[in-house]
Amino acid sequence: FIALGLLIFLLNGSLKAWRWQVLLSPQPENEPSLRYSAVFRAIWLGQMINSILPFLRLGEIGRAYAINQQTGYSKVQAIGTMLIEKSIELILLGLTVLLLLPFAVLPAVAEQLGLGLALAAGVFLVGMALVTTQTERVIGLVQRVIQPLPAALEGWVSRRLLAGLNGLAALRHGRSLQKIGLSSILITSLDIALPYTLFFAFALPLSFSVAVLINVAVALVTTPPTAPGELGIFEAAVFFVLAQVGQTEVLGTAVIFSYALVFHLCTLLPKLTLGSLAAVQTKWSWRSLNAPAAS
Questions:
Q1: Which residues contact 65 (CB under 8 A, 6 or more apart)?
Q2: H or E stretch including 96?
Q3: Furthest-apart CA atoms within the chain: distance in Å
Q4: Tens digit of pLDDT for each residue in 69-83?
């Protein structure tokens, strides 16, 4: 079951790479599609960097650098696609919390938190959609605002503005939106399937709703910058959930700690292993994070 859990996490990462490929190249029939292998390596490289240096969230910069280094894709445009990706993840996380409330005992703040996440991310995503449909007006407005700036600075801002707006191109295509939506639902399902599968590795008599709770708790505490590798934070989230559902005395501290540790390793080891391989294959270095994000 632990091996199955590792496979689930690897499949999850593969789906994230495919979703990002759609975001980066929403119309492959009209233009050369980016190589999946390049996107796959960039995804794992970014996850490894965020695991090692979570405080600065440099993984997104590492991803943008890796895809640029392999394919020449604009770094600024790549970061624009990540905004869509993160918004969708927050929306699904918030909806998961709201859907779970009737079936589980959560702290009183959970309802407001889930609703807040879903609304904030939804508003942000709608805002990006409006920007993509009114691109010319947005560009004209920004150009009027930056017109008083020196010519060199004005040109620099304009180039990066155009590149960032191109990163939202997937929102203009219905077929791409369908692929992004379907893959996001599958990714969320696999996020929940991992802790649930590991219940069987320890013969834990826990329900699927508890696995959903664990996934939500881990996502909430690891989304903002935490300790390197989420050490301690990850395990504490699992302990908190199992304590809330009254399993601390039933299962025992040793069993809960063992489950939390194995769960954590199933998510951390693939990031470090595949991320390190991606760093070698893309000839990436830590100094790359200090390089300017050229378009």
A1: 75, 284, 288, 289, 291
A2: helix 75-100
A3: 69
A4: 888 888 888 888 888
- 168 closest CA partner among 125, 204, 211: 125
Phi, psi (5° rounding) for residue 204?
A: -85, 125
What is the mean pLDDT of the segment spanning 187-193?
95
CA 255 to chain centre: 29
pTM reported for the whole predicted model: 0.81
Give the separation between CA 218 and CA 96, rounded to whole angstroms. 13
Length of the chain equals 295
239 vs 144, higher pLDDT: 239
Q: What sections of 101-134 are H helices per DSSP?
A: 109-133
CA–CA distance, 54 with 57 (Å, rounded to integer): 5
Contact between residue 101 and residue 111 where contact means Cβ atoms under 8 Å apart:
yes
The one-letter amino acid at 179: K
Tokens encoding 189: 């399902």
d(CA 42, CA 37): 9
* Residue 163 burial (10 A CB sphere; 0-12, 13-18, 19+): buried
